[in-house]
Amino acid sequence: MWDAIVIGAGPSGSVTAYLLAKKGYKTLILDMKDFPRYKSCGGGVTWRAYNLLRELGIKLRSPEAYHKEVVIRGFGEEIKVRSDEEFAVATLDRRKLDKELLDEAIAQGAEFRKEKVSGVISKEDRVEVIGSGFSSRYVIGADGAYSITAISSGIRNCWRNDDIIFAIEGRAPLYDELTFIVDASPSGYGWIFPRGEDSNAGVGGISSKSREVIKAFEEFSKRYKVEKVGNWIIPTGGHDKQIAKGRVLLVGDAAGLADPLTGEGLYYAFKSALECSKSLESEDPALSYSENMGNVMEELRLKRKARNIIVPRMDFFFKMFVSYPEIARRYMLTSIGRLDFKEFWRWGILRIPKAMMRRASKVLKESL
Ligand SMILES: Cc1cc2nc3c(=O)[nH]c(=O)nc-3n(C[C@H](O)[C@H](O)[C@H](O)COP(=O)(O)OP(=O)(O)OC[C@H]3O[C@@H](n4cnc5c(N)ncnc54)[C@H](O)[C@@H]3O)c2cc1C
């Protein structure tokens, strides 16, 4: 019997397997695909995600470019924000990142097998992986947005429409600046992430408005010369669903942990891997994991609330953002992990009247 079976060798699964194998757990990692394999993603790794991995002992080799400055554009305005850290966002090809992380797990002693899992069955002292003959003391569901582990273990049912972002990804020429385009999609945004020889570019939005996202991508692709590569869903945090039960724990997209405002999933994939691996040492791993993830879940709930307020009024909020650059700078600090989002939100709400005054005086000056 294995100590831990990790289902899914994406970033959340491989980092969990890496940490468990490092602690001496007999760890098996299963994925239905051979690696390297394609995964639809913008390939943007924020500084805090990169740095968290570094703290765990993984110094990433796969980034192809490091961007210190981020451009945010839309509604005829533009703002540039510069990171005080080594960089704000590193960009890479997910084929290379995922292979690199799986290799790290294997180097620590985890064993990898190609296997499509159709479900798990929980017993008192172990969990069985249906049809494979494998059983383990614990199973980690790292099998992504449509996690079969989550459903078959009874941890949660399917996502609701407002839990999910629908995103379309493509290839574009090599642009100079890493750019977010906030008016590219009515319920989300567009991105251009330059990397080695080209740029990853796409648009995302709320899944119930997927037709709008498809239409937005058509216009975006003409404007920025983007060739479609794929589309997928991103399950976002801020929901009230469980993330663990008994001997089964979910990490990354399987647990629905991406940032509701930006769709950033990699930081939360690594963070959940870390908390999950620590929890297995406790008497009641499911309880301990859910408790240890409490702060993260709270942050994601607040981000979801912020999204529901900001995104439908993006024009208004972005223009304020531009009139009051300190808002943009502080938001950048949250995404590189230097400022708590709750603190930023409290501070930002109080600045709205001032930002509105600045905006009004700018408009007045321009019209005179
Ligand atoms: C278009 C798009 C753009 C994005 N851009 C960014 C970005 O720039 N930055 C960022 O931080 N996040 C981004 N995200 C989110 C990010 O891609 C995810 O949050 C991240 O991949 C989650 O990692 P994971 O390991 O949990 O799941 P995944 O990466 O989805 O890995 C799941 C693994 O499980 C395997 N699997 C699934 N089912 C089974 C099964 N039944 N049996 C065996 N194996 C199985 C799959 O083959 C896969 O390898 C983006 C997402 C999309 C869709």
TrEMBL record:
Gene3D superfamilies: FAD/NAD(P)-binding domain
Pfam families xrefs: FAD_binding_3
Residue ranges of every copy of the FAD-binding domain listed in the record: 3-273
InterPro entries in UniProt: FAD-bd, FAD/NAD-bd_sf, Geranylgeranyl_Rdtase_fam, Geranylgeranyl_reductase
Domain of life from the UniProt record: Archaea
Signal peptide region: none
One Gene Ontology MF term: FAD binding
Designated name of the protein: Geranylgeranyl reductase
Organism whose genome encodes this protein: Korarchaeum cryptofilum (strain OPF8)
The organism's taxonomic lineage, starting at the top: Archaea, Thermoproteota, Candidatus Korarchaeia, Candidatus Korarchaeales, Candidatus Korarchaeaceae
